[in-house]
Amino acid sequence: MFKIKNSQNKTDEELVSLTLKNQEYFLYLVERYKEKLFRYIRRISSFEKEEVEDILQDIFIKVYQNLNGFDLKLKFSSWIYRITHNQVISQYRKIKNKPKILSFDLNNHFLENISSDLNLNQEINLNDLKEEINQFLNQLDIKYREVLILKFMEEKDYREISDILKKPIGTIATLINRAKKKLKELIEKNEEKY
Amino acid sequence: MKKNISQEILEKIKEKKISPKPKWQFLFKDYFIWTIAGIFLIIGSLSAAVIIYMINNNDWDLYQQASNSLLGFIFATLPYLWIISLIVFIFIADYNFKQTKTGYRYQISKVILFSILLSLVLGFFFYNFGLAKTIEHIFEDVPFYKKVMEPRHRVWMQTEKGLISGQIVSVQNENKFILKDLNGKIWEISCCRDVSFKERLKEGMRIRIFGQSKEGNIFEAFKVMPLIGKQWMVKGMILEGLNERKIPRQSY
Asked: Which of chain A's residues have a Cβ under 8 Å away from the Cβ of B107?
């Protein structure tokens, strides 16, 4: 526990260097990311809790095996999110017939973030539309859904999203704009009904 | 989520004796991808050099004899094979570039534009070193290449317009040699009092001739050039009967 206390102030990159010398330090990296990645996997996939835990194990083992390939030009968090993204995609390829209805934990922070960004009619209160937004996010194509999750739920900036999805920043900006436009259309269409 | 998942992961790593892959493997992969990208960029540049060589050695001064319009002449004589190979090599180079560690950060359109420009710059460099001519000569006798380049050479198969191309079958004497044209027809070519030029004429040589068709299979040559390239003309290999207003007569 002494080590844990000491390691809490260390950067991810320092922990990577330390892990390469002593594998016990890897524990702190796992501790730091396990919950974030668990949430992220749940948000982008429809895997059950137990499956997510298995995937998470595989991810951390892959991270450990590839520590020497970590590029210091990237943020460690971008790198580990990229590995997670790839692992989820490859898992999806293995199990093709999975139902893909997701449930998002739409907290107020997310709703505020996206509400101000979508420039919605002031009369629309997203807090009342939590359930619908869940559906709308499910209706979006995976490429749009994922950028919205990374931007508004994981709160990553454009450069980080670019590094996670391995796409140019310009493409990320376009994807985010299109995703917002599609989500806005769905919300407004829903409002017109009532 | 299980509380002890961190510990489980660490135990699994220990139990299965998993260790980080050595750094050299990642470095090797990186260098390998960069090397492949570089090699294909250079091969693409060599294609660009040949394209420059062929465009530069096209018979722009004779296009009116060879074709009805400049555009028609350009389309008939573009080196399509080399243009396709340039595109393919640039595509492979760019694909490899995108696989490098930070290659994904660049827009593909910008990467393609940059590699085309770089290929052209390197192409000019190789062209100036004479590599393009050497490459073209190496390919000249390859049957597939001959076939692909035939449409370009067929521009020089219009005897009614005074254009003919083919291979020298034999050099008979100072003023006459026998030519087999691209259609396989045998021609008796009358020329040429330029001694230095005659020394260059040899059996098997592939040439094109600008002149005038006479009776039967007799053709009077005004100007003889290799099938690709203008070096003989540049050096003043002007044959008897040449229209002196068009091309000044020179001699060594």
From this structure: 168, 170-171
CA–CA dist B119, B42 (Å, integer):
7
Contact between residue A33 and residue A80 where contact means Cβ atoms under 8 Å apart: yes
Residue A89: other Cβ atoms inside 10 A: 13
Inter-chain touch A27–B10, beta carbons under 8 Å: yes
Which among A52, A60, A169 has the least Cβ separation from residue B9? Answer: A60
- In B, which residues are within 8 Å of A69 by CB distance? 21, 23, 25-26
Name the B residues in 4-43 with CB < 8 Å from any A CB.
Answer: 5-10, 12-14, 18-23, 25-26
Residues of B in contact with A60 (CB under 8 A): 9
How far, in Å, CA of B222 to CA of B212, rounded?
Answer: 8
Phi, psi of B170 (to 5 degrees): -160, 150
pTM over 0.90: no
First to last CA, chain A: 57
Tens digits of per-residue pLDDT, B56-104?
A: 877 776 777 667 788 888 887 888 899 999 999 999 999 999 999 999 9
| CATH level 3 topology of A2-94 | Rna Polymerase Sigma Factor; Chain: A (1.10.1740)
Longest dimension (CA), chain A: 62
pLDDT tens by residue, A101-129 = 666 666 667 777 777 777 666 666 666 66
Q: Which residues does A contribute to its contact with B (CB < 8 Å)? A: 20, 23-24, 26-27, 30-31, 34-35, 38, 49, 52-53, 56-57, 60-61, 64-69, 71, 73, 162, 166-171
Cβ-contact A114, A65 below 8 angstroms: no
Nearest CA among B59, B57, B73, B69 for reference residue B246: B59
Q: How far is B117 from chain A (nearest CA, A)?
A: 21
Provide ipTM, 2 decimals.
0.81
Which domains, ranges and CATH numbers included, belong to chain B?
A: 23-139 (no CATH), 156-234 (2.40.50.140)
The 3-state DSSP class for residue A83 equals helix
Architecture of the domain spanning A108-193? Orthogonal Bundle (1.10)
Residue B120 CA to residue B86 CA, distance in Å, equals 10
Mutate to test the interface with A, among B6, B19, B31, B97 (most CBs of A within 10 A): B6
- How many CB atoms lie under 10 A from the CB of residue B19? 13
CA angle B8, B12, B17 (to 5 degrees): 155
